[in-house]
Every structure is written in structure tokens, then in C-alpha cells.
Amino acid sequence: MDLHTYWMQEAIREAEQAEAAGEVPIGAVIVYQNEVIGRGRNRREEDQQASAHAEMIAIQEACTFLNSWRLEECTLYVTLEPCPMCAGAIVQSRVPSVVFGAYDPKAGCAGTLMNLLQEERFNHRCDVIPEVESAACANLLTSFFRRMREKKKNNKKENGE
Fold first, then answer.
1. Is position 4 annotated in a ligand binding site?
2. Is 83 annotated as a binding residue?
3. Name one Pfam family in it (predicted).
4. Which of 2, 27, 148, 157 is most enclosed, with most CB atoms within 10 A?
5. Active-site residue flag, 55
6. d(Cα 103, Cα 100) in Å, to the nearest integer?
7. pLDDT of 93-130, one tens digit each?
8. 86 labelled as ligand-binding?
9. How far is CA 116 from CA 9, 35, 68, 131, 156, in A?
């Protein structure tokens, strides 16, 4: 198993914890010198905060660990392509390398809708490695949303709608 796969599996474990808490299953880890220094999972429902994305939480933890806002020697692993907010935070925190699992057709900003991580007009850009463990990452999301739709459908039937 290569290192990207190994660390993405750590991010997948974070996504599974998010799912167990009733959140959309997205997870992230930040690795520095072969050690996880930041972990995050989606917590928007739990925290009732729009910014409680996995990447944002992992970035906060990593900055605290390093006692610096610069994450210049780190790699961020995330199960879903970063959104505009998270891509902005990644650029601002100077993360040099981002590895993600599944593409996000609705909000992806690492190549799908746009590529903020490699925007030449910014003063910092990231290397981007897509589709590491993509099937596992995509399946987490697909099965989660399938269950949510089924639950909603069953609730409608129970309520006579």
C-alpha cells in the first residue's frame, strides 16, 4: 500500500465517524513528518456552523499543533474534493499538497467547477492529487444519501403524504 492510500484511509475513518454522528461522511487528515497533526470530520449539523467542514477543522488542529498558521510542510488528505471555502483556507494556510478521494460535481474547487488550489493569480498554489481511494470515498457518500432519501420517503408514507 502506498502512503497516499494509507493516509486516505485515515481520512475515510474520519468520514465514517461523521456518518456515525449523522453527518455527511466527509473526513480529512493533515500529515506532517509522517504523523497526523490535524483531524477533521464534517460537523455542520452537530455544531450548527456552516464552516464546520472536515478540512477547516483539520487545518485548525494542525495550526494549533505547529503553533503556526503556515502549514508549509504538510499534506492534506480529504475524502471529497474541497469546496470554495475550504480551498481558500488551504491556500491561505500554505498547504503545499492536497490529496482527495471523490470529485464533487456540485462544489468542487480542485478541478471540477474551478481550480482555486492552482489558481495562478494567487500567491500560493498546491499540488493536487485526485482520486485516491475514489471508489471507497464515493461509495460512502452515495450510500449515505441513498439512505437519507429512503428515510425521507418512508417518513412521507408514514405521515400519509
1. no
2. yes
3. MafB19-deam
4. 27
5. yes
6. 8
7. 999 999 999 999 999 999 999 999 999 999 999 999 99
8. yes
9. 25, 26, 23, 17, 40
Cell of 125: 498554489
Kindly list the domain boundaries of the chain, sorted by start residue: 3-159
**41 beta partners:** 27
E-only strand ranges, the chain? 27-32, 35-41, 74-80, 97-102, 127-129
CATH topology of domain 3-159: Cytidine Deaminase; domain 2 (3.40.140)
And the C-alpha cell for 149? Answer: 432519501
Of 83, 127, 130, nearest to 108 (Cα)? 83
Summarize pLDDT for 47-95 with one digit per residue, the tens: 999 999 999 999 999 999 999 999 999 999 999 999 999 999 999 999 9
The packing angle between helices 84-92 and 54-66, to 10°, is 10
